[in-house]
């Protein structure tokens, strides 16, 4: 058996972790000797409450979910880490709303810009916690729909503030035919106390 002077290895680990006040992560990762990790088919929950309890979605959970996602993680030279995750967007704890979109989560808790997967997407600036959804749509049946790019921020209590950039609102009649539509920037709140609430549209 011949080993390189600095042997390398990869380990496959199945993780179910709560990253402090930021997010919950579940999935299978490949981890190498440097501490870098990557994986596919992962889930990331951002919001209030614990997402899963004994394998079932908790009745107390409300927020947004990235699933069927790809994930990359890199430990920093200074304390902290960076991560990039991309996947499908869905809502948790808000029955009656249909949603779709492509969700990206970027985190960098270090003091330097980092690129956890050496991707063409570039470096993630120091101190980043970013949740965005492109090509997003919210709809209630065929009557009401909102589309645009979502920029999501999380308060310490788990409430989510959602800014819809380049937003469109479409109102249809009971047959699903468009009655009118308008465009602008919308702001929403997702919280355990008020559910999904529109704060402004202009």
Largest sheet, in brief, is: 11 strands, antiparallel
| Poorly predicted parts | 1-14
Radius of gyration: 19 Å
Task: Look at the helices and sheets and give the structural class.
Answer: mainly beta
Mean residue pLDDT: 81
Strand tally, please? 13
Summary of the model, kept short:
The chain is built from no helices and 13 strands. An eleven-stranded antiparallel beta sheet has the order 1-2-3-6-7-8-9-10-11-12-13, with no helix packed on it. Strands 4-5 form a two-stranded antiparallel sheet.
Give keywords.
202 residues, mainly beta, 0% helix, eleven-stranded antiparallel β-sheet, single chain
Summarize the structure in words.
By secondary structure, the chain is an all-beta fold. Helix content is 0%, strand content 65%. It has strands spanning 10-19, 23-32, 37-48, 52-53, 56-57, 62-75, 81-92, 98-108, 128-140, 144-154, 160-172, 178-191, 195-201. The protein has an eleven-stranded antiparallel β-sheet with strand order 1-2-3-6-7-8-9-10-11-12-13, with no helix packed on it. Strand 9 and strand 10 form a beta hairpin. The N and C termini lie far apart (69 Å).
């Amino acid at each position: 058996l011949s080993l390189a002077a600095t042997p390398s290895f990869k380990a496959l680990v199945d993780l179910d972790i709560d990253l402090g006040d930021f997010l919950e992560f579940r999935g299978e990762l490949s981890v190498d000797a440097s501490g870098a990790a990557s994986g596919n088919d992962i889930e990331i929950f951002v919001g209030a409450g614990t997402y899963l309890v004994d394998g079932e979605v908790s009745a107390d959970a409300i927020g947004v979910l990235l699933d069927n996602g790809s994930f990359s993680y890199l430990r920093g030279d200074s304390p902290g880490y960076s991560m990039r995750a991309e996947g499908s967007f869905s809502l948790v704890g808000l029955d009656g709303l249909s949603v779709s979109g492509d969700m990206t989560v970027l985190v960098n808790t270090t003091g330097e810009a980092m690129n956890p997967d050496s991707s063409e997407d570039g470096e993630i600036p120091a101190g980043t916690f970013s949740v965005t959804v492109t090509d997003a749509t919210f709809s209630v049946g065929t009557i009401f729909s909102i589309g645009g790019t979502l920029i999501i921020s999380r308060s310490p209590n788990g409430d989510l503030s959602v800014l819809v950039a380049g937003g469109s609102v479409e109102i249809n009649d009971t047959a699903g035919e468009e009655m009118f539509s308008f465009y602008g920037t919308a702001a929403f709140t997702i919280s355990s106390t008020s559910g999904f609430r529109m704060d402004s549209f202009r």
